[in-house]
Structure formats: C-alpha cells, structure tokens
Amino acid sequence: MIVSLTPELERLVNEKVESGLYQTASEVVRGALRLLKERDHARAQLRADVQAGFDELARGEGRAYDKASGRRLAEGIKSRGRAARAMKTAFWSVFTTILPPQRSTRFYGRPNPLRLPTGIWGGG
Fold this sequence. Notes:
By secondary structure, the chain is mainly α. It folds into 2 domains: 1-62, no CATH class; 73-124, no CATH class. The protein is built from 3 helices and 2 strands; from the N terminus they run H-H-H-E-E.
C-alpha cells in the first residue's frame, strides 16, 4: 500500500520518529489509525446513546427539569466530579511519595514516568 502525505503531515511523522517515541513511520501511521478507529467507535456509541435518549423521550420516559431542579442536578454532577478528582489527586500524591523518581532511568529518550527504586523489586 502506498500512502501520500502532505508535506506538513510528513514533517509530523518524521518529528514523531525523531523524538524516539516511534521506531518507524509505519508505527506512527498505525498509531494514528488506531486513534482514528477509537474516535469513530466513540462517535458511533455517542450517536447510539443520543438516539436511545430520543427514543426514551418519545415513549414518555423523560424527566422535566425547571431552573432549580436543573441546578441541583448540575451541582450533584459537579460534586461527584470534584470528589473523583480529589481521590485521583490523593492517589497520585501517595503513589509518588512511595515511589520517588530515580535519576538514571530513561523511557523512549525521555524521563521515565514510572521509576521504580532499585533493589526493592530487583530493578537495576
């Protein structure tokens, strides 16, 4: 298969390979196609969810919201999101305290985001 790219896209592919994140241009293209496939799947799922909502409304299964009840709903969603973010922040705070970064470990030419202390798990 032969694929033609614009000069801009060709530069982008070359930059990705030069950065060390990918070994070849083919890896960059495969990664991009995987992301495109995931996006298309997510879009199809969203369309199906929206259609399911319209179908529920057509069957009379919807809820009516006024300004006050809409605000309560929004506040509930926001508070759940804030609680989830706080839990995530607390987890990473503990995680980074337990596993402090090591200076010498490298990952694809960049500092390794997960540096295990040497000696504990047999790392070297």
